[in-house]
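Hi everyone,

Forwarding the result from last night's run.
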Amino acid sequence: MHASITSAYLARYRSAAAASPVELLPLTGAQRRFLISRRLAPQSRSDVVPLFFAYPRGTLDQERLARAAATVAARHPALCGGFATVRGTPVLRVGGPSAEAARITVAPGGTAREALRAALLDWPADGPALRLLVAGEPDGDEELLALALDHAACDEQSLGVLTAELTEAYEKDEAYRRGEPPAAGPAPQALADYRQAVELQLAAEDAAGGPAAQAHWGRRLGGLTGTGGGAATSTGMLAERLPAAGGAARSAVFPALLDAVGVAAHRLHRTPGASGAPAGGGQLALGYPWGGRPPGAPAVLGCFLNTLVHPAGAAATDDPEVLADAWWDDLDHAGTPFDEVVRAARTAGAPWTGDLDAMLTLEDLHRRPPLVLGGTPGRETHLAGRPLAAPLAVSASHGDDLLVRLAWDSDRFAEADARAAFDDLLAVLRRHLHARPGTDGTAGTAGTDDRG
């Protein structure tokens, strides 16, 4: 039996930590992948998770933003110190708050969106972990705020923690009013909680890499072709709003999205003349993040997720219950580290390197409180044109409605083909959700997202 990737990492980490003059914390599997990929390709873009909010001009005070960012970061080890490689081992080196707030200059004739996009593309490889960036046109009546994080420091659960804590820190600004200096770093209990959560996560990852999991993923992913993957730097975006799903339909949203995105991915990747299009049939690798803190772990801020892989077929599933059952089986093995999943697929005969042909994310907006600054809730918006980790990425936000956004590699796929793929996606999604009680299945507003 092969040695676990997780157990091998832990052995290296303990050796590095024992010899270090400063405190080092271990990393989860997802954090290690982010760090290793940027060390192997230092010219590549850092993985960044941004949220964008619009505020009336004059609402935002940059000094208060900076104090709020430092105050919040100091509470969380994942936002303090910095990610590093020590003796060839990825770790989190404990230190002070890794946060900044800055106003981004808008070039003459440019827009705030362009300025923020360029600033995020130029994200420093070594931090900070949290950035609050503000930009506004000289003659505009709004300013845009980007709340952006190094993905190695956050997941969906962390975003809700941050919007709540930033709201509180900005509104109260108590340390400044009392003339107290900001905290120099996380409290001992915060460090202990973070270490416990990561160690529990690593134990779960180690346990999830056994023979049963290897056999499951070998069966599921042995048919992947996976030759159309790769990152994208020049991208376009389409969006549409559908009614929110309620009742029984709510639990069907994610498997319905898996099916719909798979159909769209095949439509694009099999388009004649598409750059890098895989030949023949076979299944495409559709990745999606899934996670949560291990049972008994403190609810610390950080990156506690895994990238799962769905074998996407070319045709929509006739029986959504079959699709849902297969997805639930995959979730029973959701803790298997991605590297172990790739190894299982290749052992089963898949000529797959681990590159993803498409990505899917779903955020439940009810889990994230609004970002209220200066008494004003930010109006969330979205920016097109950001780099992608795959040639096709679909993001869905489930709140008062279901906002579905499709972004694609514009160097590889023509816009007309992307629009046709999006039409296929929406048709499959509406069909699946319309078949369930709790939603009327009617269409939203076609075209690009009205929030940008």
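The chain has twelve helices and 16 strands.

Cheers,
N.
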